[in-house]
Amino acid sequence: MTQAVRHDSMRARNLGVVLGEIRRNGPVTRAALAEITGLTKTTVSKMVGDLIEAGMVAESGALRDGERGRPGTAVVLSGRRVAALGLEINVDYLSACVVDLTLAVRLRYSQAVDNRAAPPVETLSHLAELAHRAVDEARREGLAIAGSTLAVPGLVDGGLVHTAPNLGWHHVRVSDLLDLPVEVDNEANLAALGELWFGSAPGDFLHVSGEIGIGAGLVVGGTLFRGARGLAGELGHVVVHPDGPACRCGGRGCLERYAGQEALLGACGLTGVPELLESLRAGEPGALEACERAGSALGIALTSAIHLMDPGTIVLGGVFAPLFPWIRDPVRQAMAARLTGMRHTVPDLTVSRLGSDAAPLGAAGQIIHRVLANPIATLTRRGENA
Amino acid sequence: MTQAVRHDSMRARNLGVVLGEIRRNGPVTRAALAEITGLTKTTVSKMVGDLIEAGMVAESGALRDGERGRPGTAVVLSGRRVAALGLEINVDYLSACVVDLTLAVRLRYSQAVDNRAAPPVETLSHLAELAHRAVDEARREGLAIAGSTLAVPGLVDGGLVHTAPNLGWHHVRVSDLLDLPVEVDNEANLAALGELWFGSAPGDFLHVSGEIGIGAGLVVGGTLFRGARGLAGELGHVVVHPDGPACRCGGRGCLERYAGQEALLGACGLTGVPELLESLRAGEPGALEACERAGSALGIALTSAIHLMDPGTIVLGGVFAPLFPWIRDPVRQAMAARLTGMRHTVPDLTVSRLGSDAAPLGAAGQIIHRVLANPIATLTRRGENA
């Protein structure tokens, strides 16, 4: 390592430390930052200057007489420039959102589309339109997109979607078909991260994404558990009944066949979630029974998940969020009947306030968290583009 | 923090670094250790001297002309003094083993006892006899026991066994009933660690402990996954059939009721694993069918576990190790039928070479790994006792 390279890598690390402290402690003066980080005031001032120029930090104008140094102009994290794009393709909708550096949600677009009927190239071209609309609107607000992540309900590896059975996708290389640079990740994983960063769940939970498919993301100690190859959390294919109906995955009696959106609607002869909610509010027995059965199956699959993964709490998201008042009791009953004999506590069952917004928010949040941890990459790219 | 305290904590950290490098690189000279660690030769020599005096390190006599410094007397990790005691209480046996600092297995005792018939205090008194016998024998060999861990087939929190349903234990405080200081941990977790440190599995696997109960331990990137409260891995209570036979845990149709040792023996009217193995070798249809059914149920539960936890490989241990030739195919078939449609690879299914020895070995190994990471505690305790 040459002296210059070593110096650059130290500067990169220190910039991340300074930005992290501004995020945690802001508004905070340069003098206080020097004291907290152990860096010289000159170094801190230079770095704060660079961060202000990059629009990541702003002077808050406030003076501070705090314990940590003399009064001075304080700085805070700024959301006025750097932002990230979160995207989602799900079976019956497309979403895009823009989140700024302070994790404030700046834009949110969602569009109902039946993506099962379309080839991947068509769905991706629809998505590109939505994404460009979001990026254009963000630019008009003075935001620069530092990166974007796409959430897909399937097994993902790099830019390749191995399989997304409910979309009918197999070996789709998204990076080749989309005209903007994106990372691709599993929808249920990103929804769990969305819940962690934008929701109200504590740092230990299993977030359940109920859509046409059912995925789950386990967060332990504030970190997403991904398994050996990043394929963990496929709750929808946990076996509820070994001789049950055949599933699109090739198995039988998977949870999805009992509690997935299609199974649920099919059981009461309805075609959409809004109609189902209406029927439930009207107390229609067919709809109530369908929720009872779906909740019971979900409780059985969650029992297996609790025995295997020991989550802190269970957060129901996706369409399970609006359905929560009707599925809560059957889920709880199925879990309690099977768990209380062995465990002295059954995990709490709560509802996500984000619903189906969790995945695109987590997708954008993942980019923002990376920028916060390593701001130099964004600073340098700005310099190159300038 | 006073200057003296800071100095002590630095010395503690550096001792761990030096011991770690001796373990990884030994035989290695003091000069090479100074170069690797960046510590002064005087500091390294003093620390190596302390470690030799504590019996943790020995001069290997070998001279080294390696790239890392001039020739000198090399040192290696030594197994002649420091050791750990691993203990296990399972439903039909008790075990004890002694492992030295080099992770060599020095003693291994096992005793068939039906612990269901006895109150916890009696079982623990039996265990204490076995443990004292092992400690006495270890002392005769010049070994000093640095600590001990007890493996129990149940849900454990500190020294308290919340419940071990197959032992009939509920809220048993082991620390109050055993006359030697032990840590208590879950049998399946310790068996997975035993497989990691003493077996042939790579760093990413799900180890299945087939005993009267069935537990599992997931290792990802060389680290045991414990869940939010340390209760993860209860594979035996994954639901195989929601309306199946009642289980001791309060649930229904748990894997244990199909593939636990009792269920397996009951299905072919035999009373012990040796008889079962004899019948299988003789090709008796009843025994073969019982294994087929058990393997099939195990494959269904593992399908759910793979979807949720995404393990690298599956290692079958405990009594599943000797039964492997007869359960391998039904397990593989059940997994392949359900997994291949969705995943491009199904995890490999392998067999543990350790069988039921994995848990006590992991129990002792856990103590040794702690001593290696923080040798100062063992050095200090020696000093206090002297």
TrEMBL record, chains A, B:
Residue span(s) of domain HTH marR-type: 18-59
May I ask which residue range the UniProt record assigns to the signal sequence? none
Stored InterPro entries: ATPase_NBD (IPR043129), HTH_MarR-typ (IPR000835), ROK (IPR000600), WH-like_DNA-bd_sf (IPR036388), WH_DNA-bd_sf (IPR036390)
Q: Name one Pfam family in it.
A: ROK
Which branch of life, at top level? Bacteria
> Per the similarity annotation, which family is this?
Belongs to the ROK (NagC/XylR) family.
Q: What is this protein called?
A: ROK family transcriptional regulator
